[in-house]
Amino acid sequence: MEKRKLSFWEIWNMSFGFLGIQMGFALQNANASRILQIFGADVHELSWFWIIAPLMGLIVQPIIGHYSDKTWGRFGRRKPFFLVGAILASVGLILMPQANIFISILPALWVGAGMLMIMDASFNIAMEPFRALVGDNLRTDQRTAGFSIQTSLIGFGAVIGSALPYVLTKYFHVSNSTVPGSVPLNLTLSFIIGAAVLIGSILVTLFTTKEYTPEELANFEDPQNDAISDSEEKSKITDIFTDFAKMPTTMRQLSWVQFFSWFGLFGMWVFTTPAIAHHIYGLPLSDTSSQQYQDAGDWVGILFGVYNLVSAIIALFFLPYIAKKIGRKSTHALSLIIGGIGLISIYFMPNEDWVVLPMILIGVAWASILAMPYAILAGSIAPKKMGVYMGIFNFFVVIPQIVNALIGGPIVKYLYNGDAIYALITSGVSFLIAALLVYKVKDVDDTIVKS
Questions:
Q1: Is the pLDDT of residue 450 over 50?
Q2: Cα–Cα distance between 363 and 133 in angstroms, integer?
């Protein structure tokens, strides 16, 4: 049997929930450091608070992947996880910027960190089944396009989320002024809007997408696949460790590419706001509450929106076609090189407007990071193991972030003397190393081989 070829709009609707997930994720990425600093965190402590995010991914995604592989009921296989994750993430989005209302119980900084943990756990609950759903529903010849469309929706959602605080202030005159210890109104309102969009976009996917039954997926499995091919269905959660040991060769090779890619991304997300505020705006390292610092934080949201918008355009209109011409590996390596150059070049930008240019280059890399590794990986995984292996693959997304979280802050404090711009340069070098490692990966069903 062969899977049905899906139309563009069927693939679009299947991935539409990612728009809301990424809008919430972008609000977090662009503003969590700023919020935590408002609540009292020092710049060198930021990466320690951000360690919550990869830890949640490390714990949650393989477990969710395992159980979503085994789940089938009236609501489907992956869909129940989408909805639960969206609801919990929305709670975190609403409460994180308002953590100071709990100050009579706990310090706002710790409540904010707790909401960050809830958001990250919940994003992971929803995110992994979306990756697996693309692998479940699409044929081999549609996977690159499928993950590219998913990446474009991620980009559009991230643009909206990243730019929303700036837009609310610039065009709707919502105040971005604040007093020490309090989050500006434009930021609080943005997080509430993000929660509403997250729920709405998930519902679009729930009501428009049909999943294959386990029996249908079993008929699609290739017995020659390098992944697990035994016919016995497993049910123990501890089988995650067995699956990890038996992971496909392609997945092992991709793990090193992912390590350096996500090590770089984590550094960018954590340190861009203090880097831009200090290196570009010229503010002292101790400034976390002035009007200029809030303006810098809003501008970082715009900059993050730029790289996400570029990623959406690249993924939707260019990535599948470039990959078909030169192969997925070469496409990914080239994209990482472009992104690495972009990160390093931030150091040389004369003012905040010029930083848009490096963000365009970073957007090219982000588009490829969100699509190419998953398109390469999906071809090496047996359908019945799609969920658990997509979850295990997330180890190689979160472990580098944990490493960066542990060492990034001390490096900035002791090696870089508190100047976060050098953390962005380190991220750029990490991208370049990842690009070199791409060429060691075996892509078992690259479309260029079959064309």
A1: no
A2: 25
